[in-house]
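Extended Data, record Polyamine ABC transporter substrate-binding protein
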Amino acid sequence: MRQLKRELRMAEWRRKSQALLLIAPLAVFVLVIFLVPIGTLLQRAVANPEVANALPNTVAALHDWSRQDLPGQPAYDALALDLQQSRETGAALIGNLARRLNNEISGYRSLVTKTARAMPLEGDARTALIALDERWGKVEYWQAIAKHASPHTASYLLASLDRQQDNFGNIIPADPDSAIYLDIFGRTLWIGLVSTLITLLIAFPLAYWASTLSARGANLVMICVLIPFWTSVLVRIAAWNVLLQQSGLINSGLQALGLIDQPLLLLFHRPGIYISMVHIMLPFMILPLYSVMKSIPPTYQRAAISLGSHPFAAFWKVYVPQTYAGVAAGALLVFITTIGYYITPALLGGPNDQMVSYYIAYFTNTVVNWGMACALGALLLAATLVLYAVYQRITRPGTQATAR
């Protein structure tokens, strides 16, 4: 008996080991390609090493500073020593420090580079620094150093939520000129929601019609649905750019039919974004709906009609509730994809139509502010995870929502 149990345990262990070996390449691929970049993104959203790396002695000297008045002589001595050592170590430390502090106070870049080039100073560090540039005699420049002394900061995430820290570390509303990101997130979610609803309204009847066809007819419809996948998204957007112009095919056709007198403003406006997004995302909505609708027995609806129900009531109360899983899957897929769009709003939208992805690319490629780009990306990721959690809650078997 013991021998049999031992052999069963060994057989179970071998089976599990083989299963783990089979999924190990996929697990490594997901870890390297997916999880590691996301972890790096989240880390960069709170990383703030520039000041701590370039000015370690200054940070230590400002540790107990009240931030009310100018710091004492030790802080000036430490700043002069740090800038001299950072310059001797390499230009990268000075460049990163200048760029980080310039995000806090415009013009700080020139101050740091000018002071680093003047190293070493002669005589008293305080007198020499203020004589070199009078800004070293202003308390707000020292407050900026003390504010970013920690190697980790919440300033990027706060800025993404239109908040900021004052010079004493208190969280306050951001300046009206820079408080734009909540509006951008709201715009992004709204564009994604409207695009999802329009896609659902178009895809639902088309998927229902395809599910009622014969196998040959349904296959032909699915081929037509999948044809756009054979063309690059960029090519399709470029085609819409041509079609939506004021002298494009759509406006010309509507004017020729006498439906409009003046060309519609479709390109570089919100309607153009909706048209292109819905066109691109239709297959992602149709396929989940079709797969669910194909599995619904038609006898349920016919039984309701035979029991005296109106055909529309039978469709709405018997058939539609059985498609909720496909509706939820398709809507989630389309919504999550659309809120991350960059190319479509950039090529077809106007300045007030750009979404979060546009500003992530702006901070990454133009301003080279990786902290802000990663903070915006982290919030977009958080919104996606929340949506997925809601979807899991709604579609969980046995829940009240599913029962209804």
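Summary. The CA atoms of residues 192 and 247 lie 28 Å apart.
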